[in-house]
């Protein structure tokens, strides 16, 4: 029986394998899911992704299922409630950035019709397909993530750099960086 080949980072934790096999690198166009990943990637800054992934369900509860309309209106009392929530990463700067970024996200939706239309326009509505043979070839940033980061910051988003933006692009399939031997890469591009 052939062994399933995955990107090395997927490891052997079921939560990580499921995320790798069923989400990471697969094109996402739902605005609520895009917003969720944007917020989670910002929360991950300086931490390992597995830390955030394990807290994802707690985040969904604490952050009203990542509803940007609700988050944009969080009060000081809600911020204090979040700061007391041991199920999430209690970083005031990141929480405040999530609230700020929800407001900017809503402005983008209003201007473009959806965040999806704006963000996917950067790649002509087609995922950028990586052809890396090893995880060591996968970049942490690209000129495109630099540009998107700069543009999002200009619009008012906070607590995101080019590395966070690139991780968001990978997570939502705007960029597909599964290594070429990975079964997901083969499933998606060599049907």
List keywords for this structure.
11 helices; 191 residues; globular; Endonuclease III, domain 1; two-stranded parallel ribbon; single chain; mainly alpha
The tally of strands reads: 2
Order of neighbouring strands in the sheet with most strands:
1-2
What is the fold named in CATH at topology level? Endonuclease III, domain 1
In the CATH scheme, the class would be: Mainly Alpha
Summed up, the domain count is 1
Unreliable spans are: none
User: Using only CA atoms, what is the Rg?
Assistant: 17 Å
Word description of this protein:
It is a single chain. By secondary structure, the protein is mainly alpha-helical. It has one domain (8-189): Endonuclease III, domain 1 (Orthogonal Bundle). Helix content is 55%, strand content 2%. It has helices at residues 14-22, 31-44, 49-54, 56-62, 68-71, 76-83, 92-112, 115-121, 143-155, 162-171, 183-189, and strands at 128-129, 175-176. The chain has a two-stranded parallel sheet with strand order 1-2. α2 runs antiparallel to α7, α2 packs across α10 and α9 packs across α10. The chain is globular and about 55 Å long. The model has no long low-confidence stretch (mean pLDDT 95).
